[in-house]
Write a structure and sequence with these properties.
With about 450 residues, this protein is α/β, with parallel strands linked by helices. It has two domains: about 150 residues, Alpha-Beta Complex (Aspartate Aminotransferase, domain 1), CATH 3.90.1150.10; about 270 residues, Type I PLP-dependent aspartate aminotransferase-like (Major domain) (Aspartate Aminotransferase, domain 2). It contains 13 helices and 15 strands. The strands form three sheets. The protein has a seven-stranded mixed β-sheet with strand order 4-10-9-8-7-5-6, sandwiched between helices. Strand 7, helix 8 and strand 8 form a beta-alpha-beta unit. Helix 2 packs antiparallel against helix 10 and helix 3 packs across helix 10. It is globular and about 65 Å long. Bound molecules: pyridoxal-5'-phosphate.
Length: about 450
């Protein structure tokens, strides 16, 4: 059915994040492009927010939706299952390196991470270690926006206002070499940021810790931060020594975005639980998952036999059906390999941007890239936050038909710092990457010229 755009002068009834501006309306999509209410096309360099991987307006998905709806729309996941849920669970299990994993479906990444944490807690309780409840996470990690996941996230700018509601979570330093928290360099650093996990466990008491959670490649707080080789092997070793579960939050960096099925695969390390989201439904369904290794689930199966958890929309047949279409497209088009290939090309092209003095760091893996801006390349000093540099870059790009996302303020440990995210759909072509980088190059040139 054709969409009638909202009249521009009509007052919105939506509680938008920014209440001071009117939001651009998008009414259509075609591959990597989105189309606004005036018919103008924008290259979506971020796939929404690292969500869309198969492209916008994909008829292979939309054309089959009606056929599904005629079958069954809902069954309660705590009591029943459906062929679509069972099939997608097998599909997801097949892309991880976990042993005989079990999949719990959710509607978003925050729910998937809450599921992982409740599973970790129940695992320890049923193993007879009820004192283990704490979750260790990292500063600059983001795991979701429910109060539980905000407690776990290490993003000061989003935590502070809700601080009274947050439960205590020990945070360790991030593996952010560009701004090493210890002022060290690899390899002479001895990967001190990984040793911070060991130190924190000792301080807190290993017998109180249930799990450590981390994004294998950091997504939105300091986009594209890739830990050094050896980092996750050491993390895995520390967790094993202390009987702590390792949860890899692959909600943003997983499902092929870094060019491997799971981002943690780059380190050859197998976690105990993996969470996935965003790309699973590619924006056609609100779909996420918590995928747990057999050894975790087995403790519950042999113990109480129950997982004390559940959501109304968990395993919704329609969402799983869409997830299967996305998975089939990944298989048919070899989209994980494509993300690896196009990612190499993207980074080759992004490298040109280093000719702009404001570009401090270009980093990431596959089609997960971050570009950080600095006032001084030698010292890595950030720009004054009042300059709103990233907002200016993103706004200027949007005027020129390129959609980017700003990194969340606080890249410089909560005191300013500017960066953008580039996370396009995996179907992006080389020509479209050229267009993306060409427009960004012009934007950086013009915004730099306006700086004091
Ligand atoms: C790494 C990571 N985990 C969890 C989440 C939360 O996902 P959702 O917004 O779907 O709840 C996000 C969202 O950006 C994320 O990037």
């Amino acid at each position: 059915m054709p969409v009638s755009p909202e009249p521009a002068d009509r007052e919105s009834s939506v509680l938008h994040r920014d209440l001071t501006k009117s939001y651009r309306q998008f009414v259509g999509g075609d591959g990597v492009y989105l189309v606004d209410a005036h018919g103008r096309r924008y290259l979506d360099a971020v796939g929404g927010v690292a969500v869309n991987i198969v492209g916008h307006g994909e008829r292979k998905i939309t054309d089959v939706l009606a056929a599904h709806g005629a079958e069954v729309n809902y069954v309660y996941g705590a009591a029943f299952t459906s062929p679509w849920q069972e099939e997608l669970a097998r599909d997801l299990a097949s892309v991880t390196r976990l042993t005989a994993p079990r999949v719990f479906f959710c509607s978003g990444g925050s729910e998937a991470n809450e599921t992982a944490i409740k599973l970790a807690r129940q695992y320890h309780v049923e193993r007879g270690e009820p004192r283990r409840w704490k979750i260790i996470s990292r500063w600059q990690g983001y795991h979701g926006n429910t109060l539980g996941m905000l407690s776990v996230s290490g993003r000061p700018s989003w935590r502070s206002i809700h601080d009274p509601y947050l439960f205590p979570v020990p945070h360790i330093d991030p593996p952010y070499c560009y701004r090493c928290p210890y002022g060290l360099t690899h390899p002479s650093c001895g990967i001190r940021c990984a040793e911070d996990l060991e130190r924190t466990i000792r301080l807190e008491g290993a017998e109180t810790i249930a799990a450590f959670i981390a994004e294998p490649v950091i997504g939105t707080s300091v986009t594209g931060v890739v830990p050094v080789p050896g980092y996750y092997a050491r993390i895995r070793q520390i967790c094993d020594e202390h009987g702590i579960l390792f949860i890899a939050d692959e909600v943003l960096c997983g499902y092929g975005r870094t060019g491997r099925a799971c981002a943690i695969d780059h380190w050859g390390v197998v976690p105990d639980i993996i969470t996935m989201g965003k790309a699973l439904g590619s924006g056609y369904a609100a779909l996420a998952a918590c995928v747990a290794d057999e050894h975790v689930v087995e403790v519950l199966r042999r113990g109480s036999g129950q997982f004390v958890h559940g959501f109304t929309y968990s395993g919704l047949p329609l969402s799983c059906f869409i997830g299967i279409q996305v998975f089939n497209m990944i298989q048919d088009l070899g989209l994980f390999d494509r993300a690896a290939e196009q990612g190499k090309y993207l980074f080759d092209q992004l490298a040109q941007l280093s000719r702009h003095q404001i570009v401090g760091d270009i980093r990431g893996l596959g089609l997960l890239a971050g570009v950080e801006f600095v006032a001084d390349r030698e010292t890595h000093a950030p720009f004054a936050p009042e300059l709103n540099l990233t907002e200016r870059i993103v706004a200027c790009a949007e005027e020129r038909g390129l959609l980017l996302r700003q990194g969340v303020a606080g890249a410089n440990y909560g005191r300013g710092g500017d960066h953008i995210q580039v996370t396009p759909p995996y179907i992006i072509s080389r020509g479209e990457i050229d267009e993306l980088v060409g427009v960004l190059d012009g934007v950086l040139h013009d915004v730099s010229a306006e700086l004091p």
